[in-house]
Amino acid sequence: MSKVIKTGESARDAIIKGVDTVADLVKMTVGPKGRNVIIRDLMNPPVITNDGVTIAKSIELKDKVEDTGAQLIIQVANKTNEVAGDGTTTTTILAQEMIHNYFESYADYKSLNVVQVQKDMLKAANNISNYLLSQSVKIKDTDSIEKVATISSGNNDIAHIIAQAFEKAGQYGSVIVEDSKTGMDSFKAIDGMRLTNGSISQFLFNDRVNQKTDMVDVNVLVTTDKLDSVTDLIKIYDYIIKNGKKLLIICDDIETEPLNMTVMNKARGALSNIAIIGLPGFGELRENLLNDICLATGATLIGRDQGSTLKDFEPKYLGELEQVTVTTDDTVLKFVDTDSYGEDLLKARQDRVAELEKTMENIQKEEDKEQYKRRIANLLGGIVTIEIGGNTEVEVKDKKLRVEDALNSVQSAIEEGIVPGGGYSFLMAYLANKNNEVTEGENIVYQSLKAVTSQIAENAGYNGEDVVKNCLDKQQGFNALTGNYENLLDTGVINSVKVDRFSLLNAASVASTVITMGGVVTDENEKDQNVLQLQTTSLPIM
Questions:
Q1: pLDDT tens across 97-128, in order?
Q2: Is 342 domain-assigned?
Q3: Residue 127: strand, helix, or coil
Q4: How far is the C-alpha of 174 from the C-alpha of 288, rounded, in Å?
Q5: Cα–Cα distance, 249 to 177 (Å, whole number)
Q6: Beta carbons within 8 Å of 167's beta carbon, 6+ residues apart
Q7: Helix, strand or coil for residue 425?
Q8: 158 with 232, same domain?
């Protein structure tokens, strides 16, 4: 395929046009009075959303050079979403503003040392990031969580449910989002461990219609071995059938012959209350999870590596669970506090958690800490599911995107704290540096800090420049919902500092790279290429 090569102003204009195409569409969604965008392609039903990264990802421009500029912005917006879970629109606004500041503010930009400008832009972004972190306020209560969720989702009812969900889940609990089966928004909490392994066979479900097995008062057998033969299971199944027990088996895998035997006996009613799942996790995490499961249930780990096999089975090897729910994709174990032998399993879990917390204090790597947090959540935390309903599929999809963004914002806020929302945190950084001498590159970044508040005001029907000037003069933030200038922390217009920091850092990264461009090489446009075109309509958020 032949290539299109552009240099100088021709390349610059095409790249900026692509940047503007994405940014001008995405930034109309920011703020409490932002608009939605309808996304439609030939393969899927329409989606109505104000989620910046969803909108950006749907854009593909027919002109390959312009699309290159668009993809740069889309890529960096997605990066912010991956790191902070939100802030894609803010990233887009800041990146666009920095790029335009460079090319429009300096008539002689060609004579500038662009490499030095790039370094100074990154330096300024890092300084501002550190300043924002120094101004953050730690989240202390459920009310603060609800305020963060309200700003991110734009919906008070959803924010209230999210706040309740986080309170119920606890410090190490997890919150997940699912479609509601009733059409109503709600949440439900489960005290227990959620494993990302479902049933080893769909033919083992008790409820074949809903593809799940629900059992209460269940014994659990944990083995690191593979179920190789029928003889491995005869002694276990004989005990279960004679004593009318319910059984969950956690194993490495199962061969066809013992699986068929189990399925056939289940169909005949002999093994009506049995479920089999694979081992959770991998490597060291798997070993730790199995040990945690055995400790939490009172089970004895069976395996050749432990010096025992399934043929050595004794009833005392079984653990106990209050409830088990097995689906195609996951398994939820609800623990008992005291087993039938009188052993205090709750205290055993609490002691293990204390050990894990002490060990976690000396761990530096965040990814290693995450494993410990997950184990603690499994042992003591809660699993809370937020169920999102609606009258149409389009409404449900929009609400789910809002909830997911809000959950990510809350999680980021819990990690690093909060700052005033509405773009005022950036204006605070601008004011803090107002009287300092700055280089051209630093000035580009500092001047761009006004853009977020300005765009929020524009979307609410106000003059953006006037609002920014008033904020700086009054040293107060602008509440676009009420039109008042106020202390936004006190009135609940807040944002996660992590979201703001990474929005700025990533925007500066892509903008400082774009300004170094002298040319562009892309594939030539195909005459009859089948490119999905984006159709957009703006709607007011009710």
A1: 999 999 887 766 677 889 999 999 999 999 99
A2: yes
A3: helix
A4: 19
A5: 28
A6: 142, 145
A7: helix
A8: no
